[in-house]
Design the sequence.
């Protein structure tokens, strides 16, 4: 068993850490306060290759493994979670979805622009009445011979206002239930695609989250992903990878809150000594460090399973469930350690606490992760501490 990062992984981690500290930290408080989209920051992240890290180099991507992506997500999420969610959706939902399941033509047409950040993508599954209950899609795509006619409304769409490409999940044959669902690549400048108002959110405030309306949008047949009826499986498989990205985001949030709390507690004095030397604070730091370490093992392992082409859906659900809980608990503790200073924007921990909450909601709530995990246990799928390759196929 290896617990050491390779030279390449360490280089990615250091590059992301350095970039986040130098380029994302200045201005992050203002961008959050003003709900200002990080245009310049996303351009720089694109130039540095953060928007298509796992995409095959033949399509303009970085050709890196999932662990590299996780390490970059973690470092960027210590500082700016609006940037990291934009990055996460583009990398692990949109680029990965097309790379893993698209046709050669779809990959050649869309990946070079998405992987370089020239275009940003969005993943359009959630609807006003279909969130956790994702099979209840109301958006329809009716077969018209050479194209589908797409109608419906999607909400909570990250990158909704800035994306050029949507992966849209829609019902093509309601009688077939989830087997009648398909996924489509839709370009946002096609007639009938309309972007609703930007949501005013608790956290990740400078990312753009919108409702999207489709009205009689003509989607060419060649833009359907996979065989007819593959759409729900596509969404689930893609989200299994996406959840590793959100787990990495949660890990970064917790890590950022911990690093700030450790530094503050070693400077701030009360009752004649640094507060880190009071057991009340020292024990909080011990709990934080221990749980962050446990979350790290789970997140890195889920990434490793994906890189080994093994089944990672249960591991990614567990990693997201656990890491998002750690992020929520320990950002609250970070605010407590900072006392009154933790309650004001200048010290960053209140923003991390607000950002942590969404990691328990998007890409499947904590309750949805428990559905995924419990069904896998009850199906008798062995959840293993050592991997049994023969029992785990089909990433
Ligand atoms: N891989 C392959 N197939 C899968 C799968 C997976 N990971 N998960 C489920 N399936 C298959 C099932 O095996 C089943 O097929 P069979 O009948 O042939 O066995 C089929 O899909 C239907 O699955 P379920 O019966 O489990 O479906 P369900 O209605 O009970 O729902 C659920 C299961 C886990 C709750 C699912 O609906 C779900 O994940 N919901 C949450 C959706 C979600 O994560 N939304 C997030 C929105 S995206 C977002 O947040 C992006 C953003 O902008 C940040």
Sequence:
């Amino acid at each position: 068993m290896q617990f050491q990062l390779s030279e390449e992984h360490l280089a990615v981690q250091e590059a992301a850490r350095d970039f986040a500290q130098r380029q994302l930290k200045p201005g992050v408080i203002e961008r959050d306060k003003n709900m200002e989209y990080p245009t310049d920051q996303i351009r720089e992240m694109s130039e540095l290759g953060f928007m298509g890290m796992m995409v095959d180099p033949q399509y303009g991507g970085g050709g890196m493994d999932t662990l590299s992506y996780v390490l970059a997500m973690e470092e960027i999420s210590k500082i700016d979670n609006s940037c990291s969610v934009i990055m996460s959706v583009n990398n692990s939902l949109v680029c990965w979805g097309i790379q893993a399941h698209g046709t050669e033509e779809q990959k050649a047409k869309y990946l070079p622009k998405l992987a370089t950040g020239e275009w940003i993508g969005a993943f359009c599954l959630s609807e006003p009445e279909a969130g956790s209950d994702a099979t209840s899609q109301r958006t329809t795509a009716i077969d018209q011979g050479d194209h589908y006619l797409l109608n419906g409304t999607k909400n909570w769409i990250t990158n909704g206002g800035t994306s050029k490409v949507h992966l849209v999940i829609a019902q093509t044959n309601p009688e077939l239930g989830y087997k009648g669902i398909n996924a489509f690549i839709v370009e946002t400048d096609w007639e009938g695609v309309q972007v609703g108002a930007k949501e005013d959110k608790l956290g990740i405030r400078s990312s753009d989250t919108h409702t999207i309306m489709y009205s009689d949008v003509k989607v060419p047949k060649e833009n359907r992903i996979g065989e007819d009826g593959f759409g729900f499986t596509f969404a689930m498989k893609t989200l299994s990878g996406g959840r590793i990205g959100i787990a990495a985001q949660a890990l970064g949030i917790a890590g950022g809150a911990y690093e700030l709390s450790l530094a503050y507690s070693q400077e701030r004095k009360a009752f004649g000594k640094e507060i880190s030397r009071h057991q009340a604070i020292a024990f909080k730091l011990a709990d934080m460090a221990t749980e962050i370490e446990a979350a790290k093992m789970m997140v890195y392992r889920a990434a490793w399973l994906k890189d080994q082409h093994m089944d990672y859906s249960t591991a990614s659900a567990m990693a997201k469930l656990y890491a998002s809980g750690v992020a929520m608990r320990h950002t609250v503790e970070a605010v407590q350690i900072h006392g009154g200073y933790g309650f004001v924007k200048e010290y960053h921990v209140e923003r991390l606490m607000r950002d942590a909450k969404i990691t328990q909601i998007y890409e499947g709530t904590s309750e949805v992760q428990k559905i995924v995990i419990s069904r896998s246990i009850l199906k008798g799928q062995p959840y293993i501490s050592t991997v049994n390759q023969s029992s785990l196929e089909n990433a």
Summary: The CA atoms of residues 164 and 189 lie 7 Å apart. DSSP finds eleven helices and ten strands in the chain. The chain has a mean pLDDT of 96. The first strand starts at residue 121 and ends at 124.
